[in-house]
Protein backbone atom coordinates (compact mmCIF):
# COMPACT_ATOMS: atom_id res chain seq x y z
CA UNK A 1 0.00 0.00 0.00
CA UNK A 2 1.34 3.43 -0.91
CA UNK A 3 1.57 6.27 1.65
CA UNK A 4 -1.59 8.18 2.55
CA UNK A 5 -2.30 11.75 1.47
CA UNK A 6 -0.40 14.13 3.72
CA UNK A 7 -3.54 15.59 5.26
CA UNK A 8 -4.57 12.19 6.66
CA UNK A 9 -1.59 11.80 8.99
CA UNK A 10 -2.16 14.45 11.71
CA UNK A 11 -5.63 13.20 12.58
CA UNK A 12 -4.89 9.50 12.42
CA UNK A 13 -1.62 9.36 14.36
CA UNK A 14 -2.23 8.95 18.10
CA UNK A 15 0.10 10.58 20.64
CA UNK A 16 2.93 8.33 21.85
CA UNK A 17 1.69 5.74 24.30
CA UNK A 18 3.60 2.86 25.83
CA UNK A 19 2.33 -0.52 24.70
CA UNK A 20 -0.34 -1.62 27.20
CA UNK A 21 0.16 -4.70 29.34
CA UNK A 22 -1.34 -7.63 27.48
CA UNK A 23 -2.15 -9.54 30.65
CA UNK A 24 0.61 -12.02 29.94
CA UNK A 25 0.94 -12.79 33.62
CA UNK A 26 -2.56 -14.22 33.58
CA UNK A 27 -1.42 -16.92 31.22
CA UNK A 28 0.40 -18.53 34.11
CA UNK A 29 -2.79 -18.91 36.12
CA UNK A 30 -4.95 -22.03 35.96
CA UNK A 31 -8.11 -21.74 33.88
CA UNK A 32 -11.29 -21.26 35.89
CA UNK A 33 -13.21 -24.48 36.28
CA UNK A 34 -10.13 -26.60 35.67
CA UNK A 35 -10.62 -26.70 31.89
CA UNK A 36 -7.77 -27.05 29.42
CA UNK A 37 -5.52 -24.12 28.68
CA UNK A 38 -4.99 -23.21 25.06
CA UNK A 39 -1.55 -22.54 23.72
CA UNK A 40 -0.90 -19.63 21.33
CA UNK A 41 -0.64 -21.95 18.34
CA UNK A 42 -3.36 -22.80 15.83
CA UNK A 43 -3.32 -26.51 16.56
CA UNK A 44 -4.32 -25.83 20.16
CA UNK A 45 -6.68 -22.93 19.49
CA UNK A 46 -8.55 -24.77 16.75
CA UNK A 47 -9.22 -27.64 19.16
CA UNK A 48 -11.35 -25.43 21.40
CA UNK A 49 -14.99 -26.55 21.21
CA UNK A 50 -17.30 -23.92 19.80
CA UNK A 51 -19.68 -22.70 22.53
CA UNK A 52 -23.04 -24.36 21.87
CA UNK A 53 -25.07 -21.15 21.86
CA UNK A 54 -23.64 -20.05 18.51
CA UNK A 55 -24.74 -23.10 16.54
CA UNK A 56 -28.16 -23.00 18.19
CA UNK A 57 -28.69 -19.30 17.39
CA UNK A 58 -28.70 -19.63 13.57
CA UNK A 59 -29.46 -15.96 12.82
CA UNK A 60 -27.59 -12.77 13.59
CA UNK A 61 -27.73 -9.16 12.45
CA UNK A 62 -24.60 -7.37 11.22
CA UNK A 63 -24.51 -3.57 11.62
CA UNK A 64 -22.06 -1.55 9.50
CA UNK A 65 -21.99 1.95 10.95
CA UNK A 66 -19.24 4.54 10.91
CA UNK A 67 -17.94 7.72 9.29
CA UNK A 68 -18.58 6.09 5.89
CA UNK A 69 -22.28 6.49 6.74
CA UNK A 70 -21.91 10.25 6.21
CA UNK A 71 -21.16 10.32 2.45
CA UNK A 72 -23.35 7.19 2.25
CA UNK A 73 -22.45 6.86 -1.39
CA UNK A 74 -21.32 3.76 -3.26
CA UNK A 75 -19.78 1.70 -0.49
CA UNK A 76 -18.40 1.64 3.03
CA UNK A 77 -15.03 1.57 1.21
CA UNK A 78 -15.69 5.18 0.17
CA UNK A 79 -12.40 6.56 1.49
CA UNK A 80 -10.30 3.94 -0.28
CA UNK A 81 -12.16 4.15 -3.58
CA UNK A 82 -12.04 7.96 -3.53
CA UNK A 83 -8.51 8.74 -2.39
CA UNK A 84 -6.52 5.60 -3.14
CA UNK A 85 -8.11 4.13 -6.27
CA UNK A 86 -9.59 7.45 -7.38
CA UNK A 87 -12.60 5.77 -8.93
CA UNK A 88 -14.42 8.21 -11.16
CA UNK A 89 -17.90 8.06 -9.54
CA UNK A 90 -16.41 8.84 -6.12
CA UNK A 91 -14.18 11.64 -7.37
CA UNK A 92 -17.08 13.25 -9.26
CA UNK A 93 -19.35 12.87 -6.23
CA UNK A 94 -16.89 14.81 -4.08
CA UNK A 95 -16.29 17.47 -6.72
CA UNK A 96 -20.02 18.02 -7.13
CA UNK A 97 -20.98 18.09 -3.45
CA UNK A 98 -18.03 19.22 -1.32
CA UNK A 99 -15.59 22.15 -1.48
CA UNK A 100 -12.00 21.77 -2.71
CA UNK A 101 -9.66 20.47 -0.05
CA UNK A 102 -12.41 18.63 1.82
CA UNK A 103 -10.78 15.60 3.44
CA UNK A 104 -12.28 12.33 4.62
CA UNK A 105 -11.53 13.40 8.20
CA UNK A 106 -13.91 16.33 7.66
CA UNK A 107 -16.74 13.79 7.53
CA UNK A 108 -16.01 12.92 11.18
CA UNK A 109 -17.88 15.83 12.81
CA UNK A 110 -20.81 15.15 10.45
CA UNK A 111 -21.23 11.64 11.89
CA UNK A 112 -23.72 13.00 14.40
CA UNK A 113 -25.98 10.09 15.45
CA UNK A 114 -28.53 12.57 16.83
CA UNK A 115 -31.42 10.17 16.17
CA UNK A 116 -29.63 7.12 17.56
CA UNK A 117 -31.95 5.45 20.06
CA UNK A 118 -30.30 2.26 21.30
CA UNK A 119 -33.54 1.06 22.90
CA UNK A 120 -35.35 1.35 19.58
CA UNK A 121 -32.54 -0.52 17.84
CA UNK A 122 -32.71 -3.26 20.46
CA UNK A 123 -36.47 -3.59 20.01
CA UNK A 124 -36.11 -3.89 16.22
CA UNK A 125 -33.35 -6.46 16.56
CA UNK A 126 -35.44 -8.47 19.01
CA UNK A 127 -38.40 -8.36 16.62
CA UNK A 128 -36.22 -9.78 13.84
CA UNK A 129 -35.93 -13.15 15.54
CA UNK A 130 -32.14 -12.88 15.48
CA UNK A 131 -30.23 -14.33 18.42
CA UNK A 132 -27.06 -12.26 18.12
CA UNK A 133 -25.87 -8.92 16.78
CA UNK A 134 -22.44 -7.84 15.54
CA UNK A 135 -21.64 -4.11 15.48
CA UNK A 136 -18.68 -2.63 13.59
CA UNK A 137 -16.72 -1.18 16.49
CA UNK A 138 -14.05 -0.08 13.98
CA UNK A 139 -13.93 -0.47 10.22
CA UNK A 140 -10.90 -0.06 7.93
CA UNK A 141 -11.17 3.73 8.25
CA UNK A 142 -9.94 3.41 11.84
CA UNK A 143 -12.74 5.40 13.50
CA UNK A 144 -13.81 3.69 16.73
CA UNK A 145 -17.42 3.79 17.90
CA UNK A 146 -16.17 3.93 21.48
CA UNK A 147 -13.79 6.39 23.09
CA UNK A 148 -10.67 4.34 22.56
CA UNK A 149 -7.56 5.85 24.10
CA UNK A 150 -5.64 4.23 21.25
CA UNK A 151 -7.57 6.11 18.57
CA UNK A 152 -6.84 9.68 19.60
CA UNK A 153 -9.19 12.28 18.09
CA UNK A 154 -10.69 9.68 15.73
CA UNK A 155 -13.41 8.13 17.86
CA UNK A 156 -17.08 8.67 18.70
CA UNK A 157 -16.35 10.40 22.01
CA UNK A 158 -13.91 12.99 20.66
CA UNK A 159 -15.51 13.53 17.25
CA UNK A 160 -19.08 13.48 15.94
CA UNK A 161 -21.64 11.91 18.28
CA UNK A 162 -19.63 12.59 21.46
CA UNK A 163 -21.19 9.35 22.74
CA UNK A 164 -19.99 5.84 23.46
CA UNK A 165 -22.09 4.12 20.81
CA UNK A 166 -20.77 0.65 21.62
CA UNK A 167 -21.65 0.92 25.30
CA UNK A 168 -25.10 2.36 24.64
CA UNK A 169 -26.08 -0.40 22.22
CA UNK A 170 -24.55 -3.15 24.37
CA UNK A 171 -26.49 -1.91 27.39
CA UNK A 172 -29.81 -1.75 25.55
CA UNK A 173 -29.31 -5.15 23.94
CA UNK A 174 -28.59 -6.74 27.31
CA UNK A 175 -31.40 -4.94 29.14
CA UNK A 176 -34.16 -5.46 26.58
CA UNK A 177 -33.35 -8.67 24.67
CA UNK A 178 -31.78 -12.10 24.96
CA UNK A 179 -29.47 -11.47 21.99
CA UNK A 180 -25.76 -12.16 22.31
CA UNK A 181 -23.73 -8.99 21.74
CA UNK A 182 -20.75 -9.10 19.40
CA UNK A 183 -18.22 -6.70 17.93
CA UNK A 184 -16.57 -6.51 14.53
CA UNK A 185 -13.03 -5.10 14.57
CA UNK A 186 -10.78 -4.37 11.61
CA UNK A 187 -7.19 -5.39 12.22
CA UNK A 188 -5.72 -2.93 9.74
CA UNK A 189 -6.47 0.69 8.79
CA UNK A 190 -6.07 1.92 5.23
CA UNK A 191 -4.19 5.13 5.87
CA UNK A 192 -2.75 4.84 9.38
CA UNK A 193 0.90 6.00 9.15
CA UNK A 194 2.09 3.29 11.53
CA UNK A 195 0.48 0.55 9.45
CA UNK A 196 1.84 2.05 6.23
CA UNK A 197 5.32 2.10 7.75
CA UNK A 198 5.06 -1.55 8.76
CA UNK A 199 3.77 -2.46 5.30
CA UNK A 200 6.71 -0.66 3.70
CA UNK A 201 8.98 -2.77 5.91
CA UNK A 202 7.20 -5.92 4.64
CA UNK A 203 5.75 -6.35 8.14
CA UNK A 204 9.15 -7.01 9.71
CA UNK A 205 8.31 -4.15 12.09
CA UNK A 206 5.17 -4.28 14.24
CA UNK A 207 4.50 -0.72 15.36
CA UNK A 208 0.84 -0.71 14.35
CA UNK A 209 -0.41 -3.94 16.00
CA UNK A 210 1.49 -3.35 19.24
CA UNK A 211 0.43 0.28 19.71
CA UNK A 212 -3.00 0.33 18.02
CA UNK A 213 -4.78 -2.81 16.84
CA UNK A 214 -4.02 -5.25 19.64
CA UNK A 215 -4.57 -2.73 22.45
CA UNK A 216 -7.97 -1.95 20.95
CA UNK A 217 -8.92 -5.62 20.94
CA UNK A 218 -7.99 -6.05 24.60
CA UNK A 219 -9.84 -2.82 25.35
CA UNK A 220 -13.17 -3.82 23.78
CA UNK A 221 -13.08 -7.29 25.32
CA UNK A 222 -12.40 -6.10 28.86
CA UNK A 223 -14.73 -3.10 28.61
CA UNK A 224 -17.72 -4.50 26.73
CA UNK A 225 -17.34 -8.29 27.11
CA UNK A 226 -18.62 -9.17 23.63
CA UNK A 227 -19.52 -12.80 22.98
CA UNK A 228 -18.46 -12.58 19.34
CA UNK A 229 -15.19 -11.12 18.12
CA UNK A 230 -15.62 -10.74 14.37
CA UNK A 231 -12.15 -9.95 13.05
CA UNK A 232 -11.56 -8.60 9.54
CA UNK A 233 -9.07 -6.79 7.33
CA UNK A 234 -5.68 -8.53 7.53
CA UNK A 235 -3.98 -5.88 5.36
CA UNK A 236 -2.10 -8.65 3.53
CA UNK A 237 -0.13 -9.34 6.71
CA UNK A 238 0.32 -12.79 8.32
CA UNK A 239 -1.19 -13.75 11.66
CA UNK A 240 2.28 -13.59 13.23
CA UNK A 241 2.35 -9.83 12.50
CA UNK A 242 -0.98 -9.42 14.26
CA UNK A 243 -0.05 -11.84 17.07
CA UNK A 244 -3.47 -13.35 16.51
CA UNK A 245 -2.69 -16.61 18.27
CA UNK A 246 -1.41 -14.75 21.34
CA UNK A 247 -4.56 -12.69 21.56
CA UNK A 248 -6.84 -15.69 21.03
CA UNK A 249 -5.02 -17.70 23.71
CA UNK A 250 -5.71 -14.88 26.17
CA UNK A 251 -9.31 -14.59 24.93
CA UNK A 252 -9.98 -18.32 25.41
CA UNK A 253 -8.03 -18.73 28.65
CA UNK A 254 -8.29 -15.60 30.74
CA UNK A 255 -10.66 -13.02 29.28
CA UNK A 256 -13.98 -12.23 30.99
CA UNK A 257 -15.80 -14.00 28.12
CA UNK A 258 -13.52 -17.03 27.88
CA UNK A 259 -16.35 -19.56 28.31
CA UNK A 260 -18.86 -18.08 25.86
CA UNK A 261 -16.94 -16.08 23.25
CA UNK A 262 -16.83 -17.21 19.63
CA UNK A 263 -14.46 -15.97 16.94
CA UNK A 264 -14.30 -16.12 13.18
CA UNK A 265 -11.46 -16.99 10.79
CA UNK A 266 -10.05 -13.63 9.65
CA UNK A 267 -6.85 -13.37 11.65
CA UNK A 268 -4.17 -12.92 8.99
CA UNK A 269 -3.23 -14.06 5.52
CA UNK A 270 -3.93 -17.76 5.14
CA UNK A 271 -6.20 -18.12 8.19
CA UNK A 272 -9.57 -17.60 6.48
CA UNK A 273 -11.60 -20.79 6.10
CA UNK A 274 -8.79 -22.61 7.93
CA UNK A 275 -8.45 -21.34 11.51
CA UNK A 276 -10.73 -19.86 14.15
CA UNK A 277 -13.99 -20.73 15.85
CA UNK A 278 -16.28 -20.56 12.81
CA UNK A 279 -15.47 -20.08 9.15
CA UNK A 280 -16.67 -17.21 6.97
CA UNK A 281 -14.48 -18.12 3.95
CA UNK A 282 -15.63 -15.06 1.96
CA UNK A 283 -18.29 -12.39 2.06
CA UNK A 284 -21.72 -13.74 1.09
CA UNK A 285 -20.38 -17.29 1.37
CA UNK A 286 -23.10 -19.85 0.69
CA UNK A 287 -21.70 -23.19 -0.51
CA UNK A 288 -25.07 -24.91 -0.94
CA UNK A 289 -23.79 -28.13 0.61
CA UNK A 290 -22.89 -29.42 4.06
CA UNK A 291 -19.50 -28.39 5.46
CA UNK A 292 -17.59 -30.34 8.13
CA UNK A 293 -16.84 -27.18 10.14
CA UNK A 294 -19.22 -24.60 11.58
CA UNK A 295 -19.54 -21.65 9.21
CA UNK A 296 -21.37 -18.39 8.76
CA UNK A 297 -22.90 -16.72 5.72
CA UNK A 298 -22.35 -12.99 6.23
CA UNK A 299 -24.38 -11.13 3.65
CA UNK A 300 -26.15 -7.86 2.99
CA UNK A 301 -29.80 -6.91 2.58
CA UNK A 302 -28.51 -4.18 0.25
CA UNK A 303 -26.95 -6.24 -2.55
CA UNK A 304 -24.33 -3.61 -3.35
CA UNK A 305 -23.04 -2.31 -0.03
CA UNK A 306 -22.56 -3.06 3.65
CA UNK A 307 -22.91 0.59 4.64
CA UNK A 308 -25.97 2.77 4.12
CA UNK A 309 -26.38 4.25 0.63
CA UNK A 310 -28.54 7.29 -0.01
CA UNK A 311 -28.57 6.45 -3.72
CA UNK A 312 -29.88 2.88 -3.31
CA UNK A 313 -32.88 1.83 -5.42
CA UNK A 314 -35.65 -0.52 -4.32
CA UNK A 315 -34.34 -3.28 -6.57
CA UNK A 316 -31.01 -3.10 -4.75
CA UNK A 317 -32.55 -4.67 -1.64
CA UNK A 318 -33.20 -8.37 -1.21
CA UNK A 319 -36.84 -9.27 -0.73
CA UNK A 320 -38.03 -11.12 2.35
CA UNK A 321 -38.49 -14.19 0.13
CA UNK A 322 -34.81 -13.93 -0.83
CA UNK A 323 -33.77 -13.61 2.80
CA UNK A 324 -35.85 -16.53 4.04
CA UNK A 325 -34.37 -18.71 1.31
CA UNK A 326 -30.86 -17.62 2.32
CA UNK A 327 -31.57 -18.46 5.95
CA UNK A 328 -33.08 -21.86 5.22
CA UNK A 329 -30.41 -22.96 2.77
CA UNK A 330 -27.66 -21.77 5.10
CA UNK A 331 -29.04 -23.51 8.19
CA UNK A 332 -29.73 -26.72 6.25
CA UNK A 333 -26.05 -26.85 5.32
CA UNK A 334 -24.85 -26.26 8.88
CA UNK A 335 -24.26 -22.52 8.78
CA UNK A 336 -25.51 -19.39 10.51
CA UNK A 337 -26.83 -16.37 8.62
CA UNK A 338 -25.43 -12.95 9.54
CA UNK A 339 -27.76 -10.48 7.83
CA UNK A 340 -26.35 -6.96 7.43
CA UNK A 341 -27.99 -3.56 7.71
CA UNK A 342 -26.39 -0.12 7.38
CA UNK A 343 -27.78 2.67 9.60
CA UNK A 344 -27.68 6.34 8.59
CA UNK A 345 -25.12 8.85 9.83
CA UNK A 346 -27.74 10.33 12.17
CA UNK A 347 -28.46 6.97 13.78
CA UNK A 348 -31.59 5.70 12.06
CA UNK A 349 -32.30 2.19 10.85
CA UNK A 350 -33.89 2.93 7.48
CA UNK A 351 -37.47 1.74 7.24
CA UNK A 352 -36.71 -0.79 4.50
CA UNK A 353 -34.15 -2.48 6.77
CA UNK A 354 -36.60 -2.39 9.66
CA UNK A 355 -39.29 -3.91 7.47
CA UNK A 356 -37.05 -6.77 6.36
CA UNK A 357 -35.99 -7.48 9.95
CA UNK A 358 -39.55 -7.49 11.25
CA UNK A 359 -40.70 -9.67 8.34
CA UNK A 360 -38.00 -12.21 9.19
CA UNK A 361 -39.22 -12.20 12.77
CA UNK A 362 -42.78 -12.78 11.61
CA UNK A 363 -41.70 -15.82 9.60
CA UNK A 364 -39.65 -17.20 12.48
CA UNK A 365 -42.58 -16.92 14.89
CA UNK A 366 -44.33 -19.53 12.74
CA UNK A 367 -41.44 -21.66 11.48
CA UNK A 368 -38.66 -20.93 13.96
CA UNK A 369 -38.83 -24.47 15.34
CA UNK A 370 -37.41 -25.61 11.97
CA UNK A 371 -34.44 -23.24 12.40
CA UNK A 372 -33.38 -22.62 16.00
CA UNK A 373 -31.35 -25.38 17.64
CA UNK A 374 -31.51 -27.65 14.62
CA UNK A 375 -28.78 -29.75 13.04
CA UNK A 376 -28.18 -30.73 9.42
CA UNK A 377 -30.10 -33.84 8.41
CA UNK A 378 -28.64 -36.70 6.35
CA UNK A 379 -29.96 -34.92 3.23
CA UNK A 380 -29.81 -31.16 2.82
CA UNK A 381 -32.29 -30.76 -0.04
CA UNK A 382 -34.85 -32.96 -1.73
CA UNK A 383 -34.18 -35.20 -4.71
CA UNK A 384 -37.70 -35.03 -6.16
CA UNK A 385 -39.07 -31.54 -5.53
CA UNK A 386 -36.68 -28.62 -6.08
CA UNK A 387 -36.23 -25.94 -3.43
CA UNK A 388 -37.08 -28.17 -0.49
CA UNK A 389 -34.49 -28.04 2.30
CA UNK A 390 -34.22 -30.19 5.41
CA UNK A 391 -33.24 -29.57 9.02
CA UNK A 392 -33.26 -31.90 12.00
CA UNK A 393 -34.19 -31.20 15.62
CA UNK A 394 -32.53 -33.56 18.12
CA UNK A 395 -35.38 -32.81 20.52
CA UNK A 396 -37.97 -35.43 19.67
CA UNK A 397 -36.12 -36.53 16.55
CA UNK A 398 -38.11 -34.21 14.29
CA UNK A 399 -37.22 -33.60 10.65
CA UNK A 400 -38.36 -30.41 8.95
CA UNK A 401 -38.97 -30.06 5.23
CA UNK A 402 -39.00 -26.37 4.30
CA UNK A 403 -40.45 -25.34 0.95
CA UNK A 404 -41.09 -22.02 -0.79
CA UNK A 405 -43.68 -22.80 -3.49
CA UNK A 406 -47.15 -23.89 -2.43
CA UNK A 407 -48.13 -26.50 -5.06
CA UNK A 408 -51.30 -25.83 -7.04
CA UNK A 409 -52.14 -29.52 -6.76
CA UNK A 410 -52.31 -29.25 -2.99
CA UNK A 411 -49.87 -32.14 -2.60
CA UNK A 412 -46.13 -32.08 -1.96
CA UNK A 413 -43.90 -34.95 -3.05
CA UNK A 414 -40.76 -35.57 -1.02
CA UNK A 415 -38.12 -37.99 -2.24
CA UNK A 416 -35.87 -38.25 0.83
CA UNK A 417 -37.94 -39.25 3.89
CA UNK A 418 -38.47 -42.94 4.62
CA UNK A 419 -41.91 -42.89 6.25
CA UNK A 420 -43.41 -45.59 8.48
CA UNK A 421 -47.07 -46.43 8.03
CA UNK A 422 -48.94 -45.98 11.30
CA UNK A 423 -46.03 -44.17 12.92
CA UNK A 424 -44.93 -41.19 10.83
CA UNK A 425 -46.83 -37.99 11.54
CA UNK A 426 -46.79 -34.79 9.48
CA UNK A 427 -47.80 -31.30 10.55
CA UNK A 428 -47.48 -27.86 9.03
CA UNK A 429 -45.80 -25.52 11.50
CA UNK A 430 -48.35 -23.06 12.76
CA UNK A 431 -51.15 -25.64 12.43
CA UNK A 432 -52.09 -28.40 14.88
CA UNK A 433 -53.87 -30.78 12.52
CA UNK A 434 -52.11 -33.92 11.27
CA UNK A 435 -51.74 -34.09 7.49
CA UNK A 436 -52.53 -37.14 5.40
CA UNK A 437 -49.75 -38.79 3.42
CA UNK A 438 -48.97 -41.91 1.40
CA UNK A 439 -45.65 -43.63 0.88
CA UNK A 440 -43.96 -43.51 -2.51
CA UNK A 441 -42.20 -46.86 -2.52
CA UNK A 442 -39.43 -47.62 -0.03
CA UNK A 443 -38.33 -44.00 0.00
CA UNK A 444 -40.41 -40.90 -0.43
CA UNK A 445 -43.88 -39.69 0.46
CA UNK A 446 -46.75 -37.66 -0.97
CA UNK A 447 -48.25 -35.23 1.51
CA UNK A 448 -51.70 -33.64 1.26
CA UNK A 449 -51.31 -30.04 2.32
CA UNK A 450 -54.14 -28.30 4.17
CA UNK A 451 -56.68 -26.59 1.95
CA UNK A 452 -56.09 -23.00 2.95
CA UNK A 453 -56.54 -19.67 1.22
CA UNK A 454 -53.58 -17.33 0.95
CA UNK A 455 -54.99 -15.31 3.84
CA UNK A 456 -55.16 -18.44 5.99
CA UNK A 457 -51.58 -19.52 5.33
CA UNK A 458 -49.40 -18.97 8.39
CA UNK A 459 -46.84 -17.03 6.35
CA UNK A 460 -46.44 -16.55 2.62
CA UNK A 461 -42.63 -16.54 2.33
CA UNK A 462 -42.02 -20.23 2.99
CA UNK A 463 -43.46 -23.10 4.99
CA UNK A 464 -42.11 -25.93 7.11
CA UNK A 465 -43.47 -29.43 7.51
CA UNK A 466 -42.69 -31.23 10.75
CA UNK A 467 -42.08 -34.95 10.20
CA UNK A 468 -41.81 -37.32 13.16
CA UNK A 469 -40.90 -41.02 13.24
CA UNK A 470 -39.12 -41.14 9.90
CA UNK A 471 -35.74 -42.33 8.77
The H-level CATH homologous superfamily of the largest domain, spelled out, is: Glycosidases
Beta-strand percentage? 15-25%
Uncertain stretches: 1-33
Give the spatial strand order of the biggest sheet.
Answer: 5-4-3-2-1-7-6
| Structural class computed from helices and strand pairing | alpha/beta
Helical amount among residues, as a percent range?
25-40%
Output the helix-strand order.
HHHEHHHEHEHHEHHEEHEHEEEEEEE
Organism: Apteryx mantelli (North Island brown kiwi)
Signal peptide: 1-34
Protein name: Alpha-L-fucosidase
Family: Belongs to the glycosyl hydrolase 29 family.
Verbal overview:
The protein is an alpha/beta fold. The chain has two domains: 36-369, Alpha-Beta Barrel (TIM Barrel); 388-468, Golgi alpha-mannosidase II (Immunoglobulin-like, Sandwich). 26% of the residues lie in helices and 15% in strands. It has 13 helices and 14 strands. The chain has helices at 9-12, 42-45, 52-57, 78-84, 88-97, 118-127, 165-176, 193-200, 207-224, 239-242, 244-253, 320-332, 351-367, and strands at residues 59-63, 132-138, 180-186, 228-232, 262-263, 295-300, 335-341, 388-393, 398-403, 411-414, 425-428, 437-439, 445-448, 463-468. It has a seven-stranded parallel sheet. Helix 7 links the parallel strand 2 (132-138) and strand 3. Helix 4 (78-84) crosses helix 5 (88-97), helix 6 (118-127) crosses helix 7 (165-176) and helix 6 runs parallel beside helix 13.
Amino acid sequence: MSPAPARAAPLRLPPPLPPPPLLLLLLALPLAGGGPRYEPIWQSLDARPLPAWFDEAKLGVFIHWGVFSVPSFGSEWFWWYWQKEKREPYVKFMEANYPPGFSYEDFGPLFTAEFFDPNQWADILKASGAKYVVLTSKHHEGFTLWGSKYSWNWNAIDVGPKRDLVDELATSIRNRTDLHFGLYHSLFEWFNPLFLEDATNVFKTRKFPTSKSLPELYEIVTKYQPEIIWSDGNGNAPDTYWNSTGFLAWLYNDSPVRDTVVTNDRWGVGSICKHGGFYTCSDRYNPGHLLPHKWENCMTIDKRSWGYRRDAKLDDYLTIEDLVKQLVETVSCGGNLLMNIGPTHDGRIAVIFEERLRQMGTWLKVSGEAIYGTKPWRAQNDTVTPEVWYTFSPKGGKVYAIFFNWPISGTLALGEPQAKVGETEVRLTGHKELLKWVALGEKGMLIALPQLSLKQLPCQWGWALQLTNIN
